[in-house]
Design a protein that fits this description.
Layout lengths: L5 H4 L5 H14 L5 E2 L11 H12 L12 H15 L8 E4 L2 H12 L5 E6 L3 H9 L3 E6 L10 H7 L4 E7 L11 H12 L5 E5 L24 E6 L12 E4 L2 H14 L5 H11 L7 H22 L14 E2 L10 E2 L2 E2 L3 H12 L1 E2 L1 E2 L9 E4 L4 H17 L2
Helix pairs in contact: 3-10, 4-10, 5-6, 5-9, 7-8, 11-13, 12-13
Bound molecules: glutamic acid.
């Protein structure tokens, strides 16, 4: 008899984390690997946030917090939604979890029955698919085009909807493409969803503050879908707080209550110290906070630099991302080519070739549902980015 459940046997490993682990392993063996695999800001958490955490320890916030999060944190999150997104939420609509990943996992568990269809525009963030599969939902992939900045059109969405559709999941700014939906585009999506009963929208806004084109737009702003949107956010990316593991949802109360019930059986609540630190982060206004503005400016400078370097590689098709810190270039013109013992037939072959031959860790596009591309994270220093892109170009040009 199999030791492990079918559930876990059938689940794919997180490719973003797997590629990062491989890069770490090679580095530990003494190889000079540059990692462009994980999406993690290379900045430190703002000092004020760190001070708030130290104070939380001294003030003995070391006991179990309430399952959905401390009341002052949920209030601060409501303040954030009002200030940044002009959205009105009550604390009972907020559930704070151990990272946005757990928030998404819980809400899918709470919404999706076996056989329910979940529409996932492709490319998508790596974990959406496995989270839906664990809930025995059926992923319905809608392939977007690089020419349309990898954004789903209302027509495509309409065609994908069936009586079994329960949920639509997307991120904006997007991981892995770095593209943003405009207000008009979100409105058009909302109008399609509003025509159908019982379809919910999971809007993953974790990259909200890493936006190079202006105001962030939330789909929850539209009246006709407001009670069907679950907005997911957190502090990992915008506040350089990946290790603190804080994510949250703002949801219709019935869904927030369900997530709270599930969380009560799974983690009880998330870390008390990290919660108190997050109160401080939520009360920082990203429009005026030097820490946040500085990070965004540096990301933008790197984006511009990497864009030029990528455009300079023959056979690589690339769009200028508008947010987050990823490029998702199309590299399929190299498929069918070889160098020495390496034969490149897909994005996994290419990512492994770049790792082993060029000592640069990327993530294969197949992990995000698009095998023509690879993902590069530019959340690393300019110096390393220049060297990584030089190595990538050299390795690609060797392929014949
Ligand atoms: N969200 C980040 C990424 O896509 C962190 C790793 C992960 O959780 O997948 O790289």
């Amino acid at each position: 008899m199999e030791i492990l459940s079918n559930r876990i046997l059938n689940m794919a490993e997180s490719e973003t984390l797997a590629m990062t682990a491989k890069a770490r392993e090679l580095k530990a063996q003494g190889k000079d690997v540059i990692s462009l695999s994980i999406g993690e800001p290379d900045f430190n958490t703002p000092d004020a946030v760190k001070e708030a955490a130290k104070k939380a320890i001294d003030d003995n916030f070391t006991h179990y917090p309430p399952v959905p999060g401390y009341p002052d944190l949920r209030e601060a999150i409501c303040t954030k939604f009002k200030r940044d997104n002009n959205l009105d939420f009550k604390p009972e609509q907020i559930v704070v979890s151990t990272g946005a990943k757990q928030s998404i996992y819980q809400l899918v568990q709470c919404l999706v029955n076996p056989g329910d269809e979940v529409i996932i525009p492709t490319p998508f963030w790596v974990s959406y698919k496995e989270i839906v599969r664990v809930a025995e939902g059926k992923c319905v992939y809608v392939k977007t085009k690089i020419e349309n900045d990898f954004k789903v059109t209302p027509q495509q969405l309409e065609e994908a909807i069936t009586p079994r559709t329960k949920l639509i999941m997307f991120s904006s700014p997007s991981n892995p493409t770095g593209m943003l939906y405009t207000k008009d585009e979100l409105k058009a999506i909302a109008d399609v969803v509003a025509k159908h009963d019982n379809i919910f929208i999971m809007a993953d806004e974790i990259y909200e503050h890493i936006n190079f084109v202006g105001k962030h737009e939330s789909i929850a702003q539209f009246e006709n879908v407001r009670d069907r949107v679950i907005t997911v956010n957190g502090v990992a990316k915008g506040f350089a707080m990946t290790g603190w593991r804080i994510g949250f949802i703002a949801a219709p109360t019935v869904i927030a209550k369900a997530c709270n019930k599930l969380q009560g059986q799974v983690t009880s609540a998330t870390c008390s110290i990290a919660q108190k630190a997050t109160v401080c982060a939520m009360l920082m206004d990203p429009a005026t906070s030097p820490d946040i503005i500085n990070m965004r400016n540096i990301f933008q400078k790197r984006r511009d630099m990497v864009y030029k370097l990528l455009c300079d590689i023959p056979g690589v098709k690339v769009r200028l991302p508008q947010g987050a810190f990823y490029f998702f270039p199309e590299v399929s013109s190299y498929y069918g080519k070889s160098y020495g013992e390496y034969k490149i037939n897909n994005s996994t072959d290419l990512a492994m070739y770049l790792l082993n031959e060029a000592n640069v860790a990327t993530v294969m596009g197949s992990a995000f549902g698009d095998d023509n591309c690879i993902r590069l994270s530019y959340a690393t220093s300019e110096e390393l980015l220049v060297e990584a892109l030089r190595r990538i170009k050299e390795a690609l040009l060797k392929l014949q």
